[in-house]
Design a protein that fits this description.
The complex is a heterodimer of chains A (114) and B (116).
Chain A lengths: L4 E3 L2 E4 L5 E6 L6 E7 L6 E7 L2 E5 L6 E5 L5 E5 L8 E8 L9 E2 L3 E5 L1
Parallel strand pairs in A: 2-11
Antiparallel strand pairs in A: 1-3, 3-8, 4-5, 4-9, 5-6, 7-8, 9-10, 9-11
Chain B lengths: L2 E3 L4 E5 L4 E3 L2 E3 L6 E7 L6 E7 L6 E3 L2 E6 L4 E6 L8 E11 L2 E6 L3 E6 L1
Classes of the chains: A mainly beta (114), B mainly beta (116).
Chain lengths: 114, 116
């Protein structure tokens, strides 16, 4: 079975631009979470989507948004890019549950903002 | 708030040595889950283990073993007879339920280098 897939693998943008990152979960998984990993640090939770609704948001501004489609794939959008948005963006999928489900991660998208 | 501390930023050992990665966590929850992930240079986080707070039994999987001690809030990871392929950044994580979402709180990671 295919794991979590993300596209693109790498992306270069300039300040002020907008970017869209894509994620396809493991087949059968209905929950998708997004994390930001700045170089040298652990991943930070952005938000989680389940059944096309956002449930739970970390400490990120409204410039970060996402949506989930009927096939449970997801897109992360970041508007008005800042230099500090340069990071590895990781998507994780999981089976729905009461909170103990394991999150499986994709290879990530490396975003560089110049 | 939940917190995970991995005090060892970098560890370097020679192949075949045993190595232990430390993880200390803070939580007010009585039920919680702990995880270890491996991140090779490619960037993908690879799931290694999940442990719930009610199960304090140590676990062994091949050359990997985990020691969960609730009394000291620690969940340490040992690699026996290390190999060059074990070189990676290892993250310990704690689950937290936030507004109905399961959020993982990660430590800063330990960069493990196995030298031939």
């Amino acid at each position: 079975d295919a794991g979590v897939t993300q596209s693109p693998t790498h992306l270069i943008k300039t300040r002020g631009q907008q970017v869209t990152l894509r994620c396809s979960p493991i087949s059968g998984h209905k929950s998708v979470s997004w994390y930001q990993q700045v170089l040298g640090q652990g991943p930070q939770f952005i938000f989680q989507y389940y059944e096309k609704e956002e449930r739970g948001r970390g400490n990120f501004p409204d410039r970060f948004s996402a949506r989930q489609f009927p096939n449970y794939s997801s897109e992360l959008n970041v508007n008005a890019l800042l230099l500090g948005d340069s990071a590895l963006y990781l998507c994780a999928s999981s089976l729905p549950g009461t909170g103990e489900e394991t999150q499986y991660f994709g290879p990530g998208t490396r975003l560089l903002v110049l | 708030a939940q917190k995970v501390t991995q005090a060892q930023t970098e560890i370097s050992v020679v192949e075949k040595e045993d190595v232990t990665l430390d993880c200390v966590y803070e939580t007010r929850d009585t039920t919680y889950y702990l995880f270890w992930y491996k991140q090779p240079p490619s960037g993908e986080l690879v799931f290694l283990i999940r442990r719930n707070s009610f199960d304090e039994q140590n676990e062994i999987s091949g050359r990997y073993s985990w020691n969960f001690q609730k009394s000291t809030s620690s969940f340490n990871f040992t690699i026996t007879a290390s190999q060059v392929v074990d070189s990676a950044v290892y993250f310990c994580a704690l689950s937290e339920v936030l507004q109905g979402a399961q959020k993982l709180v990660f430590g800063q990671g330990t960069r493990l280098t196995i030298n031939p």
